[in-house]
Amino acid sequence: xxxxxxxxxxxxxxxxxxxxxxxxxxxxxxxxxxxxxxxxxxxxxxxxxxxxxxxxxxxxxxxxxxxxxxxxxxxxxxxxxxxxxxxxxxxxxxxxxxxxxxxxxxxxxxxxxxxxxxxxxxxxxxxxxxxxxxxxxxxxxxxxxxxxxxxxxxxxxxxxxxxxxxxxxxxxxxxxxxxxxxxxxxxxxxxxxxxxxxxxxxxxxxxxxxxxxxxxxxxxxxxxxxxxxxxxxxxxxxxxxxxxxxxxxxxxxxxxxxxxxxxxxxxxxxxxxxxxxxxxxxxxxxxxxxxxxxxxxxxxxxxxxxxxxxxxxxxxxxxxxxxxxxxxxxxxxxxxxxxxxxxxxxxxxxxxxxxxxxxxxxxxxxxxxxxxxxxxxxxxxxxxxxxxxxxxxxxxxxxxxxxxxxxxxxxxxxxxxxxxxxx
Length: 423
Ligand code: HEM
Prior knowledge:
The longest helix is centred in the middle third of the chain and has 32 residues, at about 240-270. It contains 18 helices and 16 strands. The protein has helices at about 40-45, 70-75, 90-95, 110-120, 120-125, 130-140, 150-155, 160-165, 175-185, 190-215, 225-230, 240-270, 275-280, 285-290, 290-295, 330, 365-385, 415-420; strands spanning about 5, 25, 55, 60-65, 80, 145-150, 235, 235-240, 300-305, 310-315, 315-320, 325, 385-390, 395-400, 405, 410.
């Protein structure tokens, strides 16, 4: 991936303010080397001599931040780097109508308060028992079989089941929402215009789904997430209808796709590192504290910011409207930020990452995500203490705004021992 110029297909024309030596050929939706791993493919861009901001003609033409400190700084400074467009290509980002992800402060603040009301740590602690029961039921459903297809049998069900219950939505709606989320975060199409149309269709699909649910819950007394949010007020006034649509749709999008894929990355690694599994299993406190290291090691999001005004930054001139992609993989896996970054070290100190973003939009669902990861590890390792990837299998990866993983067959019992013995 990320071979230095010359660029074969010209893609978008290079704007005059982009220096020729900053042009790198990187397609965020089709990373070179993705067959060997999503994180490995992104990391190939992060060479010692790679500038901290590079520009690619792909996906409509945009900058890419390649250093952890720069990714974090851009996320943290909405005055200079606006959320007006956060999805690439620009044509897709302009159609993306989720609330409040495209708002900058101060407009963003009141909406964020509503999200936090439903997703703060105290609220999440209340659902822990339910989260645990979902995990146990799923794991016990296949533990005796000695194998599972992890994404199908666990990752794509567990967080979705938890979240659908929190929102009081029927589980049979989950596949439809998962399909819409797929279209939002890895939109179909070969051109920016086609990708924009695909994202727009997915966005409208979310709105059509939530519209009758919002109508039914307006004025209701339920304590599910949707009822709480629909009946929240902004500056003591009911929210505008389009804002409610955007807020509830974002809630569903955020809760569905991220944890699913994160869990797959985590389990692929653990399946190949029995010594890490042993370390976690033998020390329950370490296991509880390992979640932050897991998030550092397996970042999945690559979204963007729009340059708010012309400025000099990181040795280049940026123009208002320029888009900067922030691949969070390049923070958590950066050696300068986390020595021996490929190693998952459950006892690591001074962990640095942008897996949940940073600044005002920092992930509103991180307490839920953290709890889902810890519960999964606890309940899985109790019942399936040794496991490996099925011999001969190879997970497949897809890059996008959220990275996706397929084909994660896990085995345990005799098969797993054979696998470890052959290592
Ligand atoms: C491993 C799991 C997760 C990861 C890696 C993740 C990552 C992120 C990132 C990077 C952002 C910032 C986007 C930006 O600033 O442009 C974000 C925002 C957000 N996330 Fe998550 N997320 C995860 C799980 C969740 C869950 C379970 C929910 C549940 C609802 C959720 C809801 C949200 C919401 C609502 C926002 C928007 C916050 C705002 O705009 O103020 N996320 N997430």
